[in-house]
Amino acid sequence: MFYLSIFFQYAAQYLKTRMTYRGDLVVEIFSDLLFQAVNLIFILVVFGHTALLAGWSREEIIFIYGFFLVPYAIFSAFFNIWDFNDRYIVKGEMDRVLTRPIHSLFQIIIERMELESLFGVITGLAIMFYAGSQLGLELSWYDPFVFILMVIGGAFIYAGIFICLASISFWSDSKTDIMPMMYNIGNYGRYPVDIYNNVIRFVLTWILPFAFVGVYPAAFFLGRTEWYTYAFLTPVMGVVFLSIAYFLWNAGVKRYRGAGN
Amino acid sequence: MNVIEVNKLRKEFKSYSSRSGLKGAFRDLFTRNYKVLRAVDDISLQIKEGEMVGYIGENGAGKSTTIKMLTGILTPTAGEVRVNGMDPHREREKFVRTIGVVFGQRSQLWWDIAVQESFRLLKKVYKVSDEDYNTHMKEVIETLEIEPLLDKPVRKLSLGQRMRCELAAALIHNPPLLFLDEPTIGLDVLVKMKIRAFLKEINKKYKTTILLTTHDLADIEALCDRVVLLDEGKIIYDGRLDELQKNWVEGKQVHFEFQELVEVSSLEELSKDFDVKWRPGERKNQWVATVEGDDDAVSRLMSQVMLKHAISDVKINQVSTEEIIRNIYEEGIIHG
User: Fold this and answer.
1) Residue B8 contacts A, CB cutoff 8 Å
2) Keyword Cell division on this protein (chain B) (predicted)?
3) What residue spans define the domains of chain B?
4) Which of A134, B123, B230, B298 could lock onto A59 through a cystine, CB 3.0 to 4.6 A?
């Protein structure tokens, strides 16, 4: 309860600050939209050359992309702590965080949130509805609930991976350029895993399980029964990865060396 | 009751030293030379409720590292720490509710938002009731004279203004223990004095225990009865500030500036009844006498000398704390 109320306090403060820079906000949302449009065009270009991609149609791939945008938006809004090393370890902001009576990871999440990224949820839903109607998909009463579960699972996986990466900063104080690479690998999850070779498929399923953020859960809504087992593993994987990240973080905080001053 | 109880506290940092040259860099890739640096070396310390303690040492002596262990930021390598009856690192979230921290070089406040918004957020974070906040903070705000700054964003404040707000922010939950790491760094004399007066007041009123590190020894002189001197991670002195002065000051220095040339021999002849050492001063016709003994001896010597030689200027110097501490670090031992 306390954490929830603190979250809303920070969110209110965040919105207040953002509102004062309205122009900035509009530009940011617009550039996000543009980025998503480019990705869509890429899919269309690919399907200008072929009708099926390993048995998946154009609309199905677009649907997967739409689904992917939703957990990704939640991740970007709350767990996008790619600059953790630079900002908190090198500049020593972690000192301040550790003198406050709230869990350090939670503090960093609420300090770094970017609520405007949640706009991606709307874009994602719109894309899914468009592709779904093209495919003639029908909505059952339980679909929204399953959807929420899958989205949370997907966002947790993304969050888990990035928190693990951020935790590495506690052990090695040198800057790593691993973050941009991760964004790239994350994008692989938007496409059906059967188009990749087995090694990449294994990595995307069990090591860096980005496939659980896009193709696996989306397969459930597309009625692709052969992927159902994986689809229902999504929330499990989410909880597992976030837990690993949480333990790694706590272990890291114990090793925190502080910035010299 | 001891607010801070530290027993054989130690903190080691492991760092690797890189070899020189390109060839050395390649070798570093495979095997590294690790070096263990002991930043804090088995220190023991007790601080009682209501004490104001000055924690001093040169850069890199381990001051900040100690403070960071006492506030729960760093985990000790070995030793025991109990602060406010808790283990700072293990019970961090519960523990930090009972302390206030000001790092002079780092801001606790949110850069972009108004000072009062920062206060409001911190009030929620520390779960301070409206009632407590209103009575307690009203006073703090008045004493620190920050009322007119409350609606300004932190980035628009001057350093002195910001520092006073930082101090107020650290006191929102009225903590019984306050850690101040270089709270007056870079501030002008007026602001410094304001901050000192304020610290004295809260110490008297709430019996707030204060541990202070600073490079400005005037802060320590104005505030602390007790000083802890740190050198290379070890405590080299822990005791009253006036004891330190008493043990170190070897009498007083009197600077005489004479109107004409004066020989040492004549001065020595004049002062043969006193325990005195003469040395030439920096200026022409200036002589410095270091007198052992009480104030009476000093005045008698002065009258003797002035009877015989015409002087243009005379000055009595007491050895400053700064000088004492510089001496201690240069010689590395405490005598007396």
Assistant:
1) no
2) no
3) 2-246, 250-318
4) A134
B14 touches A at CB < 8 Å = no
Instruction: Please tell me the total count of domains within chain A.
Output: 1
User: Which CATH number is B2-246 given?
Assistant: 3.40.50.300
**For every one of its 261 residues, what pLDDT tens digit does chain A have, with 9 covering 90 and above?**
899 999 999 999 999 888 888 888 888 889 989 988 898 898 888 888 888 888 899 999 999 999 999 999 999 999 988 888 888 988 888 999 999 999 999 999 999 999 989 999 999 999 999 999 999 998 889 999 999 999 999 999 999 999 999 998 888 766 667 888 888 888 888 888 888 999 999 999 999 999 999 999 999 999 999 899 999 999 999 999 999 999 999 999 998 987 655
Query: Does residue A132 form part of some domain?
Result: yes
3-state helix, strand, coil in chain A (%, to 5): 80, 0, 20
Is residue A181 domain-resident?
A: yes
How many Cβ atoms are within 10 Å of A46's Cβ, its own excluded?
13
CA distance B158 to chain A (A): 21
| Residue among B102, B82, B93, B181 nearest B144 (CA) | B102
Buried (b) or exposed (e) across A102-134, using 16+ Cβ within 10 A?
Answer: bbbbebbbbbbbeebbebbbebbbebbeebbee
For A85, the domain range is 2-255
* Residue A260 maps to a domain: no
B119 neighbors B137 (Cβ within 8 angstroms)? yes
- CATH match of B250-318 with 3.30.70.1570: yes
DSSP 8-state code for residue A124: H
Interface test with B, best of A17, A18, A88, A98 (most B CBs within 10 A): A98
Residue A175 domain-assigned?
A: yes
CB contact under 8 A, A103 and B93: yes
CB proximity list for A228: less than 8 A, separation 6 or greater: A219, A220
Candidates A95, A97, A102, A170: best to mutate against B (most CBs of B within 10 A) is: A95
Q: What is the pLDDT of residues B169-195, one digit of tens each?
A: 999 999 999 999 988 888 889 889 989
